[in-house]
Amino acid sequence: MENDIPTFANMNIATALKLKRLLYIIAKSVPFKPNFTKLATLLDMNRNTVSDLMCYLEKAGIINQLRAEAEGVRLLGKVDKVYLNNTNLAYALSDNTPDIGNVRETFFFSALRVVCPVTTSNVSDFTIGGYTFEVGGKNKSQKQVHDVENAYVVKDDIEYGMRNVVPLWAFAYFYA
Q: What pTM was computed for the model?
């Protein structure tokens, strides 16, 4: 973070410090819904530079950017949410205990993005190949995905699933 990215990107010291500040902002509010214009103002830099910094953080394996399903030029489009790359970073970079809901979503996204494209959903947390996934704790209800075809509720703190309920731990088998 302090050496590799700035060297790779030919950054000056001031930009490298802003990169660290950007990561701190993301870590405090994951899943982070980025507004590059506001971030640029907050970091006192160009909007395009903020976008570049986000790409550097993603290439370095520090964050994951969740986008809508798109093709062509739209693939480069708007980032819907930003997650830390793994749950360990959430604990390492947070001033206090991270929100468990964010930890669950980070784990799910990190585990599955290495084996298949994961995109944002209009009604739930994630879409993967035409299937919709809502991630939550053991008391998470079906309400949010009740009328959605091919929808699954991924629950933490349960041992086994039934019908369209899958335990979160089962997705650990995808984690690389």
A: 0.85
Tokens 């793994």, residue? Answer: 86
List the CATH code of the domain at 1-98: 1.10.10.10
Distance of CA 112 to the CA centre of its chain: 11
Task: List the beta strands (DSSP E) in 4-130.
Answer: 63-67, 79-84, 126-128
Adjacency order of strands within the sheet including 131-136? 126-128, 131-136, 151-155, 165-167
Cα-based angle 24, 28, 34 (whole degrees, multiple of 5):
85
Are 106 and 86 contacting, i.e. CB atoms less than 8 angstroms apart? Answer: yes
d(CA 152, CA 133): 5
Residue boundaries of the structural domains of the chain: 1-98, 100-176
Report whether 53 contacts 10 (CB < 8 A).
no
Task: State pLDDT tens for residues 15-65.
Answer: 888 898 898 888 887 678 888 899 999 999 999 999 999 999 999 999 999
